[in-house]
Amino acid sequence: MENRNILSARFGKIKPDSVEDYVAAGGYEGLKTAITMKPEDIIEEIKKSYLFGRGGAAYPTGIKWEQAYAVPLEKGLKYMVCNADEGEPGTFKDRHIMAEDPLELIEGMTIGAFIFGAEEGYIYCRGEYSAIQETLRSAIDNAKKSGYLGENILGTGLNFDIRVVSGAGAYVCGENTALVESIEGKPGRPRRKPPYVKNAGLNMKPTVLNNVETYACIPWIVKEGGEKFLSIGTEFSGGTKLMCLSGNVVNKGVYEVPFGTTLRELIYGMGGGIPNGRKLKFVHLGGCSGTCFPEGLLDTKICYNDLRKNGLSLGSGAVVVIDDSQCVVDYLKVVMEFFEEESCGKCTPCREGTQRMVELLEKLSEGRGTDEDIERMKDLSQIMKNSSFCGLGKSVPIPVLALLKYFEDEFKAHVAGKCPSGKCSMSGGKK
Amino acid sequence: MDKVKEVLSKYHNEKENLVQIMLEVQKLSEKNYLPDEWVRYVAEALDLPLSKVYGVITFYAMFNNKPRGKNLIEVCKSGPCHVNGSANIIAMLEKELGIKPSETTSDGLFTIELSNCFGACDIAPAVKIGEKVYGNLTQDSIKNIINPYREGFN
After folding, report:
1. Quick check: bond before A195 cis, omega within 30?
2. B139, B93 contact by CB (below 8 A)
């Protein structure tokens, strides 16, 4: 398999915050090209690249930027905001970009600032990454000293500065409107949409908001052209993706793969397969809010279209591998406890629904569950999917319904008082 | 209080920097918490109702109103760490320190907290002590990691 390094080419090879190293390794070529182009033409290249948002929602970046570009300047100067909240368990790709090549993110945001005439940028970085925030700040300072950021960037008259803002431990702040609320110093609860952030985001001003990896793709696309980026991936998914491999797998880590690589190649090729002679039970794809599937779907290509056809979605690129020593009820309980704690409490379906899910799974894992409880989980899933306020609550049911679909027998075994893998306490016992 | 004042002026006494201010102020406490009198002081300085300020600090998981240990040991319990045996790490820490999660040792050195992922899934199971992340933990290695903290390392 071809190893295409677009995003990770400089990982481990340069001093992360050094502009000299970055430039010597091909950095800032994108920005230098961009300033010779018309903003519309840059957006056109991004559209041709079929770059989709890498945070999880997979919205086409070119279209997003075209829409943002169309928002009239009378509404105020646009903000460039980067979502570096990476809170999805099993996701650590943005951490690698920011820790090993932060300037490719900064360059991507600066190209955006050139397009939109933005003067202020924010990188909203999760509080857990406090050490990485310092790397980012240092890279920003160095870029300013070298004329790539700050006033009159590369003599273009563009003034653009970036500030690193820390989160403080709230998964929901990965949601766009919650994120801007948090930058404003408030609790990070999502806003009602519309208005969308492109029209009224940070400080209710037009805001262009993208994930770290999305911004990091921009310099390469501008430098090499959108068509070349697309040619690396599949027909409708341009470029490469940083995949985060974790769980019960030999070689955990971040792998940059071209779209079109299969999940099997990733897990058994680069990942080295399942340790301790175990077998794969299922894969949890795209983070906690992603779907779960068994061995049968492993030959699916990593490509937005192929995944969608199989009812899967790539999400953030998290691939959590679960081996056959694990129990679906026990695993799902851990995932639901995560959502229970991270629900912001704003809407009832999510706040109460996550608690009830945990209760039902506790009953099952203690051997007190009934067939009705399994039905309740399905009903509750539908309610949460239909009536939660934001994406957090809406996506909680995804792993629930997937595991119930593929492993209903194992749930039923718990109802009958037996945990086949022996992970659950079953302490409540059956009468 | 002078140090709190310094943090406030670093952030130009601006309301929108409340979260950033509180993160730095909490670091000053050495017990990983926000004393009530500091919270009141910040609220007044930023001209914010105290209820709003508490609304913010109780929303975010990283803030605490009660004193915690000098060293916060965060153990990740999310899926990727869970399937790599984080429960064993928690049990080992409980035994070694004689406390349960959310409790502080009587010498005030350690608090164990269960965390929802700090992005170290590639080295699961992992713990975070202060700003340092330790991964690929075994029951033996966790002992060697906490011992230096007992002797004042941080």
Report:
1. yes
2. no
Which is nearest to A76 in space by CA: A165, A194, A207?
A: A207
Tell me the two tokens of residue A88.
Answer: 């999805």
Strands A240-247, A318-323: pairing is parallel
Strand A79-84 to strand A207-211: parallel, antiparallel, or no bridges (unpaired)? parallel
Angstrom distance (rounded) from CA A257 to CA A137: 29
Specify the pairing of strand B127-129 against strand A207-211: unpaired
Asked if B19 lies within 8 A of A185 by C-beta distance, the reply is: yes
What pairing do the DSSP bridges indicate for beta strands A207-211 and A291-293? unpaired
* The model's pTM: 0.97
SS3 of chain B: helix, strand, coil, percent, to 5: 50, 10, 40
* pLDDT tens sequence across A181-238: 999 999 999 999 999 999 999 999 999 999 999 999 999 999 999 999 999 999 989 9
Distance from first CA to last CA of chain B, Å, rounded? 24
Question: What would the two tokens of residue B111 be?
Answer: 């608090």
Rg (CA), chain A: 22
**A294-312 per-position pLDDT tens digit:** 999 999 999 999 999 999 9
Q: Which of B23, B115, B119 sits opposite A166 (nearest CB)?
A: B23
| Cβ contact, residue pair A87, B116, below 8 Å | yes
Which runs of E-coded beta strand occur in A314-385?
Answer: 318-323
Q: What's the CA gap between B26 and A208, in Å, rounded?
A: 32
Q: Count residue pairs from A and B with Cβ separation < 8 A.
A: 125
A196 vs A46, A124, A191, A209, A350, CA distance in Å?
21, 18, 9, 11, 22
Place of tokens 């070694």: B96
Residue of B nearest to A243 (CA): B122
Which stretches of A8-82 are DSSP H helices?
19-24, 29-34, 39-48, 61-70
Q: Within the 242-271 window of chain A, which residues sit less than 8 Å (CB to CB) from chain B?
A: 244-248, 252-254
CA distance A329 to A428: 15
Q: How far is CA A292 from CA A172, A272, A358, A408, in A?
A: 21, 20, 18, 13
Strand partners, A122: A81, A163
CA proximity to B54, closest of B42, B45, B68: B42
pLDDT tens sequence across A266-293: 999 999 999 999 999 999 999 999 999 9
Identify the DSSP state of A259: B
Alpha carbon of B77: minimum distance to chain A alpha carbons (Å): 8
At A1, the pLDDT band (50, 70, 90 cuts) reads very low
Query: Which of A48, A60, A201, A44 is closest to A121 using CA atoms?
Result: A201
Residues of chain A contacting B79 with CB distance shorter than 8 Å: 89-90, 247, 284, 288, 320, 331, 334-335, 338
